[in-house]
Amino acid sequence: MSAEATNPATPGPITPGAHRRRGRPRIDLRRIGWAALLGPAAGNRLPDAIGHVVEAHRAHHPEAPLEPLRRAYVLAESSHRGQMRKSGEPYITHPLAVTLILAELGAETTTLTASLLHDTVEDTEVTLDQVRTEFGEEVAYLVDGVTKLEKVDYGAAAEPETFRKMLVATGNDVRVMSIKLADRLHNMRTLGVMRPEKQARIAKVTRDVLIPLAERLGVQALKTELEDLVFAILHPDEYTETRELIAANDARGTDPLAEIAEDARVVLKDAGIAAEVLIRPRHFVSVHRARRKRGTLRGADFGRLLVLVGEDADCYGVLGELHTCFTPVVSEFKDFIAVPKFNLYQSLHTAVSRGDGEVAEVLIRTHQMHKVAEAGVVALGNPYAPPADEQTDSTGERADPTRPGWLSRLLDWQEAAPDADTFWSTLREDLAQDREITVFRPDGGTLGLPAGASCVDAAYAQYGEDAHACIGARVNGRLATLSTVLSDGDTVQLLMGQDPASEPSRDWLDHARTPAARIAIRRWLTTHPATPQPEPEPEGRRAPESAPRAPQGAPAGRPAEANAVVDQPGASVRLAGCCTPVPPDAVTAFAVRGGVVTVHRAECHGVARMKSTGRAEVGVRWGDTTQCRVSLIAESFSRPHLLADLTEAIALESVAVISATVEPPTQGRVRHTYTLQLPDATTLPGLMRAMRNIAGVYDVSRAQHPAQTTS
Ligand code: MN
């Protein structure tokens, strides 16, 4: 089934994709097996068998205590002694291999201790109480979770109940799932000894349950290997074909990717950017997908370039250099730094083409982003320990990069869902949604949503339950109904009513795909039993007119003192996302919920609307601002080097690019959106002029500038 079977001379279990991971020596697990046979060493010396585990663990955690690992190994080895794997190897090789997988990914000591013991309670005389007494509550909790998962697994593969049981464990402690994933990976690696029907059954469970979870937990390294193992079992013909394709490419004398990598190293060195340029071979499934998508594959299609840098800002520096010195394929550009994927993933994605037509995909990220991209939650330690300095941004999403948004949201939904069934059914829908789109907010922020998401989903993703007050949206500058389904790259401006008594509409449920939206709406509906409603109002202008309302104006109990930028001591000031005011714009402001004052440009649509509903303005003037952030849209005719020229013009004005997005060109036109940090607001007109002066650029405007609206 795998390379293992085709190459009996290879020592130890080898995965189909293993040889693709050049540059990272794989540890010979069979050697561990033999060392394990020798049993624990006398006294407190570390047994040889866990030498590899310890080495891998210390590489990530130099200060980690080793004593728990030693004791866990001794207990596991003695209790599993005499048991054999189907392959004929001593059973202890399995927990050792699982633990090694986790150690290499950077798991912390508690997880590794539990991993060594993960099969003891299920398969040996060891009791959970014994584990608790000897290793503490936390390790016992993890072992118990894995033991329970073990039993779940053998039910029908993708039944809701299976998910529910698995997620009960995951939802409570994601480390349990980490151990389960590593356990499954080792079992998949060694599946060749099973009957074909059993291989297929286990592979399907892996495909339907474990791989989606690995994806959502951000454990890319495990996910790709599991994908290849499943591919080999469930699609043997395509697998063989792909393997031959890769072998044929490897046998070619020249490697265009290596050549482009070398060129890139020179470019970056000349630019003075410290960066590592690596070649990442695609895994089998990825090669297969690329082939299905593109037909014939060229040499550079068999892998990607991975550029690793030290600082976030260097990522954009690398991007600028590569786009300047190669021809960028603008449609391939994605900024997952400004908008991390739901599973924490951060990188810049682009592609550059060479004169001979070879196109190299490039991933640009920092070393820290790389670690998170590979290991996801496995490297995070205890997700329930309060983060060192928890930051919450204006959207309520935890800004702490070590807490996956998905996990945070999962825990939030669990709290918010009216009942367990609602939680599980919405979560299952979420798991079934395998594609994400990214939409942009006028303030330059972004939202990751499942494909098919509507403005309703965007509203709840951005505002949480405050989205009940959403009254409409602009999509790419045009008024749109809240039911509008969003496409990747759309810019969505949500129009929020200022009335605290605003309510969501029952029919929003028909347009909500995300659990966050569905749960929030359902919860509101269950706590507000239906009353006879007049004809449904057209979406886009729902809230302000309907039903009796609380008095308009500043929220009760928080009188907005007219006259900081606002002349109001102690007020928290926010620049409105809809119109991104910048000095010296004429501005006005309104008090919003929570004692916050939002500053708008005087000509903003929102201002007129709020005035018309009788809201009191708060006096504001610009203080001594030095730095400011602004979103600019550059509309251009598509041409090579355009992005490079624009980013260069921006750099020449000493302006930093916070994020950038390039929409795929349509009819020869392309739209770039940049969120920029200006050293000084007065440089904005000069910057916009400089951008407009670039060949092919026919307009540069502020994001959501009223003048930009063409509807
Ligand atoms: Mn196991």
UniProtKB/TrEMBL annotation:
GO-annotated cellular components: plasma membrane
Region of interest: Disordered: 1-25, 383-403, 527-563
Pathway: Purine metabolism
Domain TGS: 435-496
Domain HD: from-to ranges: 91-188
Domain ACT residue range list: 631-705
Source organism, top-level taxon: Bacteria
Extent of Low complexity compositional bias: 545-562
Any one GO BP annotation for this protein: guanosine tetraphosphate metabolic process
Pfam family, one: TGS
InterPro entries, alphabetized: ACT-like_dom_sf (IPR045865), ACT_dom (IPR002912), Beta-grasp_dom_sf (IPR012675), HD/PDEase_dom (IPR003607), HD_domain (IPR006674), NT_sf (IPR043519), RelA_SpoT (IPR007685), TGS (IPR004095)
Gene3D superfamilies linked: 3.10.20.30, 3.30.70.260, Beta Polymerase, domain 2 (3.30.460.10), Hypothetical protein af1432 (1.10.3210.10)
Family statement drawn from the similarity comment of this UniProt entry: Belongs to the RelA/SpoT family.
Protein name in the entry: HD domain-containing protein
High-level lineage: Bacteria, Bacillati, Actinomycetota, Actinomycetes, Kitasatosporales
